[in-house]
Design a protein that fits this description.
single chain; 268 residues; alpha/beta; Metallo-beta-lactamase, Chain A; 7-stranded mixed β-sheet; 6-stranded mixed β-sheet; 7 helices; 13 strands
């Protein structure tokens, strides 16, 4: 089920929840930033593309959108991308050179005349908003690029700060400190396993840079909207993540047990 909620005066969240067996639930978020030139950050999961479009239409007419910020090209971020491009000939996609290149290897490449390339550190002006592209401290796809909006002071962090939790509320402030820390640590060790091999000084410098942005709200693709006051807590958890246990997924024997549990009682 896909729901929507207002995270800030000019920002709506279009959100679903994925339940991962034995690990917890994960928010899958896209964001509508209203303004002179409305922007959509990511486009939901491929498996939920039709439901995503239905939910999106409750917060904006897709033909009013002018931009899509594609944080990266994973299947939980590109679900309705081409539906939107087909419906709205004025819509353009902001992504990196390699983001465009990866989409070019798919069956539905991006139309090159509708792409606006961006690199971390560069600014993009869209109507009444000025967006500064950033490379989040952690990510699972090398093309990842988030941004800080100078107008709303919102930080859009792609997969960074995601957390696997028991229940997914509409605000990260409603998750207990313990559940948030444990869920965020679990997520980063799964999603960015290279975290255990980082140069600690360089990583600390990157976290400090993100902290200096001082956003009013943190909007992650995989965490409920978080008040800006929570940023230090989120960064502290990332700072400790290199020393967390390495995640090891189920082996095949465990997988067969999981399958047996899911099918128990279904046969006559």
């Amino acid at each position: 089920m896909i729901t929507t909620y207002r995270a800030a005066p000019d920002i709506d969240v279009v959100s679903s929840t994925a339940t991962i067996a034995d690990l917890g639930s994960l928010a899958i978020n896209a964001f509508v930033m209203h303004g002179d030139e409305p922007l959509l950050v990511d486009t939901g999961a491929v498996v939920e593309a039709d439901d995503f479009m239905t939910a999106l239409r409750t917060v904006i007419d897709p033909t009013e959108l002018r931009w899509i910020w594609l944080s990266h090209t994973d299947f939980d971020h590109i679900g309705s991308l081409h539906t939107l491009l087909d419906e709205n000939p004025q819509l353009r996609v902001i992504t990196t050179f390699f983001g465009m290149g990866i989409m070019g290897l798919s069956s539905t490449p991006l139309p090159l005349d509708r792409v606006r390339l961006v690199n971390p550190g560069e600014q993009v002006s869209i109507g009444d908003h000025t967006l500064t592209a950033i490379k989040p401290p952690v990510y699972d796809n090398a093309v990842t690029v988030g941004f800080y909006d100078e107008t709303s002071r919102a930080l859009f962090s792609a997969d960074c700060f995601g957390a696997l939790v028991h229940d997914v509320p509409q605000s990260a402030a409603d998750i207990s400190d313990t559940d948030l820390r444990d869920g965020q640590t679990l997520w980063v060790t799964i999603d960015s396993p290279w975290i255990h091999n980082v140069d600690r000084k360089l990583f600390a410098d990157h976290l400090a840079h993100i902290g200096r942005l001082d956003p009013t709200i943190v909007l992650s693709g995989h965490l409920p909207a978080a008040p800006g006051a929570m940023l230090d807590k989120l960064l502290d958890t990332l700072a400790a993540a290199p020393d967390a246990p390495t995640f090891v997924g189920p082996d095949h024997a465990m997988f067969e047990q999981m399958l047996a549990g899911m099918t128990a009682g279904t046969a006559d």
